Amino acid sequence: MTPEDPVVDPGLGRLPVLRVVPMPADTNVAGDIFGGWILSQIDIAGSVVAHRRAQGRVITVAVNAVQFHKPVFVGDLVSFYADVVRVGTTSLTVDVIVYAERFRDGTHAECVRVTEATLTYVAIGPDRRPRPVPPNDA
Q: What per-residue string of b and e applies to 8-46 under the rule 16 or more CB within 10 Å gives b?
């Protein structure tokens, strides 16, 4: 595997919704990537699949759960996988799984699951009020 190859989620065999490399400006005082930066990327990845499923604008209404398993470092290639796991009348629940590819001495060293989260989005209309999520076959 090379840095140009998309990481396929080992458990689900799918491509990432978002891939990004964190920079030194994204670190906390200890030098690891700041958890808030990871959360913002998780929200972006989750909103991509929620927007597709809702066929329009969505807003984040809750971060239901977040688990940081391992740190992310400057230079890691971070891949975000997101799936809609529940659809309500106006809301969608999305699970996001995050992997980091670590490179050492220019070679691929490992791919580790670093974070997972569950978020809830609400579909909104032009009036910024909740609107129904269309049926899946629409």
A: bbeeeeeebbbbbebeeebbeeeebbbeebbbebbbbbb
